[in-house]
Design goal:
Helix content is about 35%, strand content about 10%. The structure holds zinc ion. The site of zinc ion has 8 residues, from loops.
């Protein structure tokens, strides 16, 4: 499924090239047994969304494509055993548009894989989950709505940096990501009055180009998990910055496995992406002094 309608792609960058991992795969034999992982926030949201469906949601590729419940990849290309689940100071709050949790291409899922403190809520114009309001009111957090600053009214709401956490007790940054297509995300931004009191964090061109220089691959636009990696970098906390690098590498590993499965080729556990992921996770778990 091409993501060139995804709002981060259009909003943060100039060229929107379809994100190649987001298309569907053909069938492949299952050989691996996924590690048992507890369902995370996006996984739970997916389950709840499926329970509400009146008809089965079929990802492109049809019903034949068996997928691991943990990582949504072909069982033969499962990455559950490679999943880092890292502590961070900052947290994420994903507001997900209706069918977003069901899409195999959704990368909010990868954020919830990697960042331990990830909350996910389904978005509705008419209702708001009381648990979301409670999270936003929790004094341990300083929420930031991550959205392009040119859409912000009044302009004073727009910020380009994150306040350092004052004390051990907080408040810590809570990044609110609108996980949707661009047109859906604009609507969500306009029609969620409970977000109006928070600063809006826009990503600056220099942050984007620095990130792009580091990227080893492909297209020219960002998916939700890349935006999350940039937010972690901005949080200013060394642990978060390292976790952001791990999240980037994990997306690369996911992409590699996805594409290999699609081409019915085995995944290469010694690919550059795997090496980067191992190194990134090692730095999170054994930080340099
Ligand atoms: Zn898996």
């Amino acid at each position: 499924m091409p993501m060139h309608g995804a709002w981060h792609g259009i909003a943060w960058t100039i060229a929107a090239v379809p994100f190649s991992t987001a298309s569907s795969a053909s069938t492949a034999a299952s050989t691996a047994t996924p590690a048992a992982l507890p369902p995370h926030a996006v996984s739970l949201l997916r389950t709840a969304r499926l329970a509400r469906s009146t008809r089965p949601f079929l990802a492109r590729g049809g019903p034949k494509g068996e997928r691991c419940e943990g990582c949504r990849l072909r069982p033969s290309h499962c990455i559950c055993a490679l999943r880092p689940h890292l502590p961070t100071q900052a947290g994420f709050c994903l507001l997900m548009h209706d069918a977003e949790p069901l899409k195999p291409s959704n990368t909010g899922w990868l954020i919830a894989d990697v960042v331990q403190t990830t909350h996910a809520f389904g978005w509705s114009r008419t209702e708001v989950d009381p648990a979301l309001l409670a999270l936003l009111a929790d004094p341990q957090w300083q929420p930031y709505v991550v959205f392009p600053s040119e859409y912000v009214q009044p302009p004073e709401r727009a910020v380009h940096s994150v306040q350092p956490t004052a004390t051990a007790a907080g408040p810590k940054p809570l990044f609110i990501l609108l996980d949707a297509t661009w047109s859906e995300a604009r609507k969500m931004f306009r029609k969620s009055p409970y977000l109006d009191r928070f600063p809006v964090l826009g990503l600056q061109p220099e942050q984007i180009s620095r990130y792009r220089l580091r990227r080893s691959q492909r297209d020219d636009h960002f998916c939700t998990s890349e935006v999350a990696a940039l937010c972690l970098e901005l949080s200013g906390h060394p642990q978060d910055q390292r976790a952001g690098q791990a999240l980037e590498a994990y997306l690369e590993v996911y992409t590699h496995h996805y594409l290999q499965a699609k081409q019915q080729q085995p995944a290469d556990a010694r690919s550059p992406a795997h090496t980067r992921l191992q190194q990134a996770v090692a730095t999170v778990l054994t930080p340099k002094k």
